[in-house]
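In the design runs reported in the main text, the only information available to the sequence generator was the tokenized backbone. The following block is the verbatim input for one such run; it is reproduced so that readers can re-run the procedure and compare outputs position by position.
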């Protein structure tokens, strides 16, 4: 018996995509958004099929993702933001809880979420990674949406 393989696919002309953008560290967030929008354009997603919601920070991101997932209007979601280490334990709380929240929404609703909430030690590290991470996390969400559809069709 031959092994059936489900090929990776990031084409997304048929998809509706929601993006949640944290306004904290806004300069980095804008670069993340630029990368995400570039990926959506490359994948063929129509501008009219993209919704961008802004929230105060990374801890608010999972709630906005959850509400977007509840609507059933989106095929994939993307979380964008930057948590940069400071001098207190707050970094660990925000980094860990935002990541757990994103994963929880993804599993609860069965909708792929590209997680591009950067967690870095410095502003320079975040700036160096922002464009590529926004792009790559968006492509990951699109690929997973296509993979889930292919699994359902098997």
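Verbatim output:
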């Amino acid at each position: 018996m031959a092994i059936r393989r489900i090929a990776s696919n990031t084409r997304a002309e048929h998809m509706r995509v929601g993006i949640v953008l944290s306004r904290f560290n806004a300069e980095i967030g804008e670069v993340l958004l630029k990368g995400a929008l570039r990926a959506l354009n490359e994948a063929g997603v129509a501008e009219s099929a993209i919704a961008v919601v802004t929230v105060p920070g990374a801890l608010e991101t999972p709630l906005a993702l959850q509400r977007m997932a509840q609507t059933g209007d989106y095929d994939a979601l993307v979380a964008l933001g930057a948590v940069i280490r400071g001098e207190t334990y707050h970094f660990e709380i925000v980094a860990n809880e935002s990541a757990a929240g994103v994963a929880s929404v993804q599993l609860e609703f069965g909708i792929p979420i590209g997680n591009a909430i950067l967690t870095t030690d410095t502003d320079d590290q975040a700036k160096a990674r922002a464009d590529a991470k926004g792009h790559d996390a968006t492509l990951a969400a699109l690929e997973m949406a296509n993979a889930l559809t292919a699994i359902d069709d098997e």
